[in-house]
Write a structure and sequence with these properties.
By secondary structure, the chain is of the alpha+beta class. It has helices at about 1-15, 150-175, and strands at about 20-25, 35, 45-55, 55-70, 75-80, 85-90, 100-105, 110-115, 120-125, 135-140.
């Protein structure tokens, strides 16, 4: 009995996981994704701060903050100009708690995008350690999948629990 209990505790510790944002390319956004091309300075979905609008882009010295009105699951931008490398993107939730941060070591122009997988992103910060950062073509989407697919670890935990119940039943039946 102690072995089964110990096994169950170890399985719970083993199955503990965290959601990690995954870098994605622009082609990986679904057809419902919203594209904002900065030809306009207005959006009903978000407020952008930390820089200024220029013709067809948004410019800053160090950090651009994008605060969304509704939570999103994935976001990406075209980095069109920068003097340095190591451009980062940080994702925050409603409480302004850091969900994930990722840094690209590329020279402009390039696309940077992150998919968090769940609708938890309320703020995105795009930052640069050197002067000058221009972005264009902000794309974002919300997760629309209603029924998530069970993860293998969840199925393993459920299976081990069922096996434990069967084992207990057989042990007490023999007694």
């Amino acid at each position: 009995m102690q072995r089964i209990f110990l096994f169950s505790i170890l399985m719970l510790l083993f199955v503990t996981f965290s959601i990690d944002a995954v870098p994605i390319d622009q082609s990986e956004f679904d057809s419902a994704a919203i594209l904002f091309d900065f030809s306009s300075t207005n959006s009903n979905d978000f407020v952008i701060s930390g820089g200024w609008f220029v013709t067809g882009a948004y410019q800053t010295w160090h950090t651009i903050n994008i605060d969304f009105n509704e939570a999103i699951s994935a976001v990406g931008v075209d980095v069109t100009r920068t003097k340095g490398q190591n451009i980062g993107m940080a994702l925050f939730d409603t409480n302004n708690t850091l969900l994930e941060e990722y840094t690209w070591s590329e020279r402009a122009p390039f696309f940077m995008g992150l998919d968090y997988g769940t609708n938890d992103i309320m703020r995105v910060s795009i930052f640069n350690n050197s002067d000058d950062l221009d972005i264009d073509n902000l794309i974002y989407q919300r997760q629309t999948q209603a029924d998530p697919v069970p993860e293998p670890a969840t199925m393993l935990l459920l299976g081990s629990g069922l096996i434990s119940i069967v084992g207990f039943k057989r042990k007490f039946k023999k007694s």
